[in-house]
């Protein structure tokens, strides 16, 4: 805090978590700036979620240093289960950690395409619908920093592209920083400014292009992974959305 | 028309029901029923201390229950025993120790049945003050921490990530539980207080679809249980505390019929 014109929202310096006699993740440094999207990729168990939680300050004992320069944070966790003992509608869930006007709630739910579910019970939503509600909740109060852990899991393919486009739009419009975790190498690379490839430690990092050409990345994901990227980048340079629903493209 | 003691009992019961309603909802949502039970059992020890040192019962029960809650948190961190085993250990050992201490206090005439099942008809004006003032404080604190407490009930990490300080509000909530047990132990007794907390809230769960509604129904259910139970006990001459709980049970059974209707509608 205190740094008025600091463009950094969160900064991790050589951070790690040691739990139950093993390192969950070690030696991670990264920073998220305003208006930038940083994406974490890596195999299962490589420490992506752990790194996100370090950035959020959810671990009591960590190695290294975390500096957070904002308190306006929106979080979409990887897993969230609503207990059947709890009667809770989408509307109540939207207000979980924040106060919102009716318009703010409607707008946010509209953006992710689930406005019609406002009065539904959370437990009756499908996986994809729930995911959209989670994203709507996280962006509703226009946070400075968004931490999205596999935000589009369970969303159908068409919706997935639209949601990633939405995430990109949000980052531009609100000038907020985004820390994104994703399995989907295709989409990861589209709007990402910086990629951190994890495998228990930082395996490599840089622009999507630089990471794709990195040998360590190729070792981790196989040669095809870098082809995927180059194909995408090519498309990205020349053409536009694959279907009519997506209007925004750079 | 009614005797003074009956009016006092009614006022005391309604005061307790106003507070157990909302707290009970959180106990159900957070699956803390057995925890509430443990705190209630430990209350016996608090009562014996009150007699030994001649201090206020509500005060000493509050101190002992809070202490037991802290010990539980400590044990959870330092042992490998599962939570329910620790709760059982604390519940029954504090009950046993309480009874042993009573054995030593042979110079005092002790109404053990009154302690276990409460004696709402023996409520004094002093007790009424404790119930209503204490209850108002509990409700006020609960209102203050409502949002972070509810958020951390739904998802702890989400609440913490977005700055809701769940650890702190969880601790405060534990103290509130100790407090409601302390102010109501004399009325409903330590074996029945958990019923007063859980049964109206469970009934409310059956008929509500959002958290605020559930709290409202839980309060209304608790108030109805007190009125039905007390008037019932007067009419047919049954023990008052158990009658209140039985009235709550009847409301719960009625709420099940509503569930059946709802699920038939959905089919």
Short key terms for the protein model shown above:
heterodimer, A: 250 residues, alpha/beta, Rossmann fold, 2 domains, three-stranded antiparallel β-sheet, 9 strands, 36% helix, 24% strand, disordered C terminus, B: 267 residues, mainly alpha
Can I get a quick summary?
The complex is a heterodimer of chains A (250) and B (267). Chain A has 250 residues and is α/β, with parallel strands linked by helices. Chain A contains nine helices and nine strands.
Would you write up a description of this structure?
The complex is a heterodimer of chains A (250) and B (267). Chain A folds into two domains: 181 residues, P-loop containing nucleotide triphosphate hydrolases (Rossmann fold, 3-Layer(aba) Sandwich); 33 residues. Chain A is 36% helix and 24% strand. Chain A has nine helices and nine strands. Chain B is an all-alpha fold and 267 residues long. Chain B has a single domain, classed as ABC transporter involved in vitamin B12 uptake, BtuC, CATH 1.10.3470.10. Chain B starts with a helix and ends with a helix. Chains A and B meet through strand 5 and helix 2 of A and helix 6, helix 7 and helix 10 of B.
- Write down the Rg of chain B: 19 Å
Distance between the termini of chain A: 33 Å
The first-level CATH class of the largest domain in chain A is given as Alpha Beta
Indicate the proportion of strand residues of chain A.
Answer: 15-25%
Secondary-structure-derived class of chain B: mainly alpha
Overall tally of domains of chain A: 2
How do the strands line up in the largest sheet of chain A? 5-6-7-3-8-9
Major sheet summary line of chain B: none
- Percent strand of chain B equals under 5%
The DSSP helix count of chain B reads 11
Please name the fourth-level CATH homologous superfamily of the largest domain in chain A.
Answer: P-loop containing nucleotide triphosphate hydrolases
As residue ranges, the low-confidence spans of chain B are none
């Amino acid at each position: 805090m205190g740094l008025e014109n600091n463009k950094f929202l969160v900064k991790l310096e050589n951070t790690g978590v040691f739990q139950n006699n093993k390192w969950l993740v070690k030696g991670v440094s990264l920073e998220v700036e305003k208006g930038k999207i940083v994406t974490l990729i890596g195999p299962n168990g490589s420490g992506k979620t752990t790194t996100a939680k370090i950035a959020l300050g959810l671990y009591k004992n960590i190695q290294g240093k975390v500096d957070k320069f904002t308190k306006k944070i929106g979080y979409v966790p990887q897993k969230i289960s609503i207990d059947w003992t709890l009667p809770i509608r989408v509307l109540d869930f939207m207000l979980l950690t924040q106060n919102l006007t009716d318009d703010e709630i409607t707008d946010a739910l509209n953006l992710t395409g689930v406005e019609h579910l406002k009065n539904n019970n959370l437990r009756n939503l499908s996986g994809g619908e729930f995911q959209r509600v989670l994203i709507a909740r996280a962006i509703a109060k226009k946070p400075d920093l968004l931490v999205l852990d596999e935000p589009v899991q369970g969303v159908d393919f068409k919706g997935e592209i639209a949601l990633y486009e939405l995430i990109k739009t949000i980052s531009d419009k609100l000038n907020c920083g985004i820390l994104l975790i994703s399995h989907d190498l295709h989409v990861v690379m589209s709007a990402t400014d910086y990629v951190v490839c994890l495998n228990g430690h930082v395996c490599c990092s840089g622009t999507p292009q630089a990471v794709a050409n990195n040998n360590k990345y190729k070792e981790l994901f196989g040669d095809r992974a870098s082809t995927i990227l180059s194909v995408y980048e090519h498309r990205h340079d020349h053409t536009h959305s694959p279907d009519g629903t997506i209007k925004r493209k750079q | 028309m009614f005797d003074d003691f009956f009016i006092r009992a009614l006022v005391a019961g309604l005061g307790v029901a106003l507070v157990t309603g909302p707290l009970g909802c959180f106990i159900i949502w957070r699956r803390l029923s057995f925890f509430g039970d443990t705190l209630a059992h430990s209350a016996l020890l608090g009562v014996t201390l009150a007699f030994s040192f001649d201090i206020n019962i509500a005060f000493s029960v509050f101190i002992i229950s809070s202490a037991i809650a802290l010990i539980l948190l400590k044990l959870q961190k330092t042992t490998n025993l599962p939570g329910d085993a620790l709760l059982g250990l604390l519940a029954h050992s504090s009950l046993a120790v309480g009874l042993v201490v009573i054995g030593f206090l042979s110079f005092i005439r002790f109404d053990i049945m009154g302690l276990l099942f409460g004696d709402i008809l023996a409520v004094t004006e002093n007790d009424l003050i404790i119930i209503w003032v204490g209850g108002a404080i509990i409700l006020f604190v609960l209102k203050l921490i409502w949002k972070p407490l509810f958020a951390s009930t739904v998802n702890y990490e989400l609440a913490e990530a977005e700055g809701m300080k769940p650890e702190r509000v969880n601790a405060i909530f534990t103290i509130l539980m100790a407090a409601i047990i302390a102010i109501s132990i004399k009325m409903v007794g330590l074996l029945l207080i958990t019923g007063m907390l859980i049964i109206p809230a469970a009934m409310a769960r059956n008929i509500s679809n959002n958290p605020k509604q559930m709290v409202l129904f839980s309060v209304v259910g608790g108030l109805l249980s007190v009125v039905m139970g007390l008037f019932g006990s007067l009419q047919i001459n049954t023990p008052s505390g158990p009658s209140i709980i039985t009235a709550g049970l009847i409301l719960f059974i009625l709420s099940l019929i509503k569930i059946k209707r709802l699920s038939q509608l959905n089919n």
